[in-house]
Design brief:
mainly alpha, two-stranded antiparallel ribbon, Anoctamin, Anoct_dimer
């Protein structure tokens, strides 16, 4: 808007130490900024009725993003034949399907793009802040909000990465102080463990797990609970601070009052309604004034039910794929392996989990592609009125798919593997195979390996796909065009160097083109919060990836992809709610991992029961005895290194064979189980309560911003009221002048008629025409007006 009197007073605030600190830091780190600060302006929804209040004469009053959005809106809804508005003659999409046009897209602008290429899409600028205002003007608010969120998330990962690195360093520093790994490494071949499969698996010595027990200590030590608690609280703080930061951005861009409810219906939605004649007929009877009402049970229910039923079916397919990986690992242990000596602990602890993790990553990547295509198909079946509803429905489906796809194997290792194995006299079997066992140090090390493979592998694959494939496709399309293999309908080769032909070779952009970018980052957020406890360096890996991701996405959008149609938005949509849900799940996940996959609770029970704070006897406490004559299936051994074995050990809490109740659960097992369940309840409730307090204490908007919005709203209302008063007074004065002139003309005309024709009726008219003007709230009131003859 134009500058309003008193506008300069809005930004004046009382002295606050926080503002001084912020100003000082801004000056110190001013070299990180790549774009100058924009002058303070007040924004208001544009209306021609208040055109005088807007600074509409400036060249960029409507920026390029708004202009191409308006053009796209018209093109999508333009009918070919007047009076025959049907689905067969609607919009540019129909022309593209019929081959009338090959493509339709906004053009890149060299001036603005050159600035962004230099200051944003450059790896040399990785440490600099993003020019969000320039991104918003070029790509629109929706794209700018994504990059603002990605940048904010990346900055918030810095303290968590430092904390995770310190936890990892602490594990290295105290490497030799762990009594469990020290006892395993100094076992001196005295502890003989039971075979881990029914055939071709020999007895093995506990000391062969020396290295794995030391590595396990890096992630299962005294500060594991502290790290898990801080990470759960960090997630809530991150979400709350993002709301504050995004509120400031949205206000600066004039979108605070923007609402998704004012969106127009999608052309595809209106086209689908054309198939239902009763709806279109009722709509036409109302002269298209009211939007057509679509009954849910008669029209919407069946497509929605079909869509979500197929989604559940494919979720089951994903679970079956994960189950097949479990069977693969069990089968590998039950048969000869082609990847080395299956009796070696290196194979059992490292090679087998690595190969299973790599195969799991390949299966997940294939299902990822299938799910992405399927989600779009299912969402197209539904009756989504607006583009926001369509995007949210597509997002929910795809995220549920990917949640099951990427996290199922990790949940299995964290919560199920090694928990229901049984014991040598009675193993629990699946399809005839013994279930997988955890090594004496627990399954946390395998969870760490699996998380590292899937998280790092997924990010590497996505970076390759996002950058390499668009680059190759652009080169191929240019080569085909220059060789004359691709021609337009007029048989003319596309060899010109115009901007539209240059952009034609780029990767097409779609309305939901940011979907895959959001999905990748939200899945990464889940890896960090749900399972980051098992890999303290996960935040650091995410930080390094995101620093590169910001610049790679910028390069892709400016160099490799066509310019998307700008869209307005006031938030990141349903993605925020998904992260909030993951944050709540992460508390329960961390509690269960600590309770069942670490040695915290067994150590506490052992220390309490034996008063042995040094934990010298803890290892023996966790291993049960077994009489080899009691095997359910006698193991088939070939060339065994051990002879006349009568007793072996296995990782369980059970009575020895010479006890009155052999192989039954002892009392301390139930104490440990009670302690684990109690820890889950206490941890989840305490951390959840603290999360709630943090969410309540941190306001959604800064108090300074709320005050500014209130001041702007008051000043704007007063300015508009004064403008309305002034306009109404001018109109009243003009109308009064016209009426007085008409009155004088009438008076002269009636006087002449009176003297000339002596008409009594005219005399009465002259005496009874009375007008009274008065201003009431800038509204002109007319009353006591009588006429006896037409004038």
């Amino acid at each position: 808007m134009k500058k309003i009197p008193g506008q300069e007073l809005i930004k004046e605030d009382d002295f606050r130490f926080k503002d001084c600190l912020t100003s000082f830091c801004s000056r110190v780190f001013s070299w990180l900024y790549v774009s100058p600060e924009r002058p303070y302006r007040i924004h208001f929804e544009f209306s021609r009725n208040y055109q005088h209040l807007f600074d509409w004469e400036q060249p960029n009053f409507f920026d390029a993003g708004v202009r191409n959005a308006i053009i796209n809106f018209i093109l999508e809804r333009q009918h070919f034949l007047e009076g025959e508005e049907t689905a067969d003659n609607l919009g540019i999409e129909k022309l593209l399907e019929d081959g009338v046009y090959q493509s339709a897209y906004p053009l890149h602008e060299d001036t603005d793009r050159d600035f962004l290429l230099q200051e944003w899409a450059s790896m040399r600028k990785w440490i600099h802040l993003q020019p969000l205002d320039s991104i918003k003007e070029y790509f629109g608010a929706k794209v700018a909000l994504y990059f603002a969120w990605l940048g904010f998330y990346t900055h918030m990962l810095i303290p968590l990465s430092v904390l995770g690195l310190l936890c990892f360093i602490y594990g290295f520093v105290t490497w030799n102080s762990d009594p469990i790994s020290r006892q395993i490494c100094n076992d001196n071949q005295t502890t003989l463990m039971c075979p881990q499969c029914d055939r071709n698996c020999d007895y093995w010595l506990l000391e062969t797990t020396c290295l794995s027990s030391k590595l396990n200590y890096l992630i299962d030590n005294n500060i594991t609970v502290v790290f898990a608690t801080i990470m759960a609280l960090w997630a809530v703080i991150y979400l709350e601070l993002w709301k504050r930061y995004s509120a400031t951005l949205v206000h600066r861009w004039g979108l605070t009052t923007f609402s998704q409810h004012v969106e127009h219906p999608r052309p595809q939605y209106l086209s689908k309604l054309q198939r239902h004649k009763d709806i279109t007929e009722r709509w036409k009877k109302s002269n298209n004034i009211l939007e057509p009402d679509v009954p849910f049970w008669r029209i919407k229910f069946l497509p929605s039910f079909t869509s979500y039923s197929i989604m559940v079916l494919f979720i089951c397919v994903s679970l079956i794929a994960i189950f097949s990986m479990i069977v693969y690992r069990m089968a590998q242990k039950a048969s000869h392996s082609i990847l080395g000596n299956e009796n070696s602990m290196t194979y059992k602890i490292m090679v087998l989990p690595l190969t299973a993790g790599i195969i799991d990553l390949i299966v997940i990547s294939l299902l990822d592609y299938v799910y992405t295509t399927l989600a779009v198909t299912l969402t197209n079946l539904e009756y989504c009125r607006t583009q926001t509803e369509y995007d949210e429905s597509l997002t929910i489906k795809n995220y549920i798919f990917q949640f099951v796809n990427y996290y199922s194997s990790l949940f299995y290792i964290a919560f199920l593997k090694g928990k229901f194995v049984g014991y040598p006299a009675k193993y629990n079997r699946i399809l005839g195979f013994r279930q997988e066992e955890c090594n004496p140090g627990g399954c946390l090390m395998e969870l760490c390996l699996q998380l590292a493979i899937i998280m790092i592998g997924k990010q590497a694959v996505n970076a390759f796909v996002e950058m390499f494939i668009p680059y190759v496709m652009r080169c191929i399309r240019k080569l085909i065009t220059r060789m004359g293999m691709s021609k337009v309908d007029s048989e003319e080769k596309l060899i010109s160097c115009n901007q539209w032909t240059e952009d034609y070779h780029l990767v097409p952009s779609y309305t939901n083109s940011l979907f895959s970018e959001y999905l990748e980052m939200v899945l990464q957020f889940g890896f960090v919060t749900l399972f980051g406890l098992a890999l303290p360096l996960a935040p650091l890996f995410a930080l390094v990836n995101n620093v590169l991701e910001v610049r790679l996405d910028a390069i892709k959008m400016l160099k490799l992809a066509r310019r998307p149609v700008a869209q307005r938005a006031s938030n990141i949509g349903v993605w925020y709610n998904m992260m909030a849900i993951v944050t709540r799940i992460a508390v329960a996940s961390s509690a269960m991992i600590i309770a069942f996959s670490t040695n915290l609770i067994p150590k506490l029970v052992y220390t309490t029961a034996t008063k042995d704070a040094s934990l010298e006897g803890y290892l023996n406490f966790t291993l049960a005895y077994f009489n080899t004559e009691d095997f359910q299936v006698q193991p088939v051994l070939r060339g065994s290194n051990f002879e006349n074995v009568t007793t072996c050990r296995y990782t369980e809490f059970r009575n020895p064979p010479w006890d009155e109740h052999p192989y039954k659960r002892p009392t301390y097992y139930w104490q440990i189980l009670t302690g684990r369940l109690a820890f889950i309840v206490i941890f989840q409730n305490v951390v959840g309560m603290i999360q709630g307090i943090i969410a309540w204490a941190i306001a959604d908007e800064p108090s300074k911003l709320r005050k500014r919005i209130k001041r702007e709203g008051f000043l704007l209302r007063e300015h508009i009221i004064e403008y309305e008063k002034k306009t109404a007074a001018e109109k009243a004065a003009a109308r009064r002048a016209i009426d007085e002139a008409q009155y004088e003309d009438e008076k002269q005309s009636n006087t002449m008629d009176y003297y000339g024709n002596n008409s009594k009726e005219s005399t009465t008219q002259t005496q009874t025409v009375q007008r009274d003007y008065g201003d009431n709230d800038a509204t002109v009131v007319y009353r006591n007006e009588q006429r006896t003859t037409p004038l």
